[in-house]
Amino acid sequence: MKVNVQLREDGDMLRGKIEGEIDTFTAPILRDELETITIGKYSLIELDLSNVNYMDSTGIGVFVGFYKKVNREDGKLKLTQLSDRLTRLFEITGLNELMDIETLKKVELSDGNI
Amino acid sequence: METFDYIEIKIPAKPQYVGVVRLTVSGMATRLGFNYDEIEDLKIAVSEAVTNVVHHAYTEAVGEVVIGSALYKNRLEVMVADDGHGFNFEEIKSKIGPYTENESVEVLREGGLGLYLMETLMDEVRVKNDDGVTVFMTKYVTREQVKDNVKRIPTK
């Protein structure tokens, strides 16, 4: 069980990809990685969460903390490629109303059950 | 009395073992026939309860967390306690009142969204706070489309 964060500059924006499980054990690792970002350098920070396969309130806490920091420093944060599970977590906590979140677009395989 | 199988695990109150509990819960929930979303809900709810103990119950010495699970035909009942001892499931269950009448809810709410998520993702959540905190929660299996006389597809 671990979390992996990859950050890469793309023009004037920063693209990040987060992979793994975010719980009370891995949340501090994620928080430390996000701490290294110089928010003022980028017009937009975009974090791809498509490979986050588990997250609970400790993960929510990390993203809320980072979102507040980005706001304080006049930056812009976007979370992208959220799975249905992650989208649901952001919806039931009401965070989807506050933060810029984009759900993973799935390829339609069929109309009914697979 | 309604019969159930009881599984108890005890872990050190350390963050690195919350994932171990999650895997165990996932296995038990699969056994009972919960669907994917229900299993993911259970994993989060139980993790929240265990995380609360890890964060709040033992600020100095490292203690233990006991996770007792009762597997009924139609539901999973999980108790998470910070006393470090095994417990009598039926006895403790009978002592737990509605969480709204209990101040320990506020103690848990300090941790953030943990209890809110437990309440949202489980069918029932109750909290008891005598010596240490015990969280008791239930989730029912939803399989109304499956009739009792229909054979399950064998798992690989």
UniProtKB/TrEMBL annotation, chain A:
Keyword entries, A-Z: Phosphoprotein
Domain STAS: 3-114
CDD domains noted in UniProt: STAS_anti-anti-sigma_factors
Domain of life: Bacteria
Protein purpose: Positive regulator of sigma-B activity. Non-phosphorylated RsbV binds to RsbW, preventing its association with sigma-B. When phosphorylated, releases RsbW, which is then free to complex with and inactivate sigma-B.
Record family assignment: Belongs to the anti-sigma-factor antagonist family.
Name of this chain's protein: Anti-sigma factor antagonist
Source organism of this protein record: Lysinibacillus composti
UniProtKB/TrEMBL annotation, chain B:
The protein's Enzyme Commission number: 2.7.11.1
Record field: catalytic activity: L-seryl-[protein] + ATP = O-phospho-L-seryl-[protein] + ADP + H(+); L-threonyl-[protein] + ATP = O-phospho-L-threonyl-[protein] + ADP + H(+)
Alphabetic keyword roster: ATP-binding, Kinase, Nucleotide-binding, Serine/threonine-protein kinase, Transferase
EC category: transferase
HAMAP family: Anti_sigma_B (MF_00638)
The family this protein is said to belong to: Belongs to the anti-sigma-factor family.
Name of the featured protein: Serine-protein kinase RsbW
Species: Lysinibacillus composti
Lineage: Bacteria, Bacillati, Bacillota, Bacilli, Bacillales
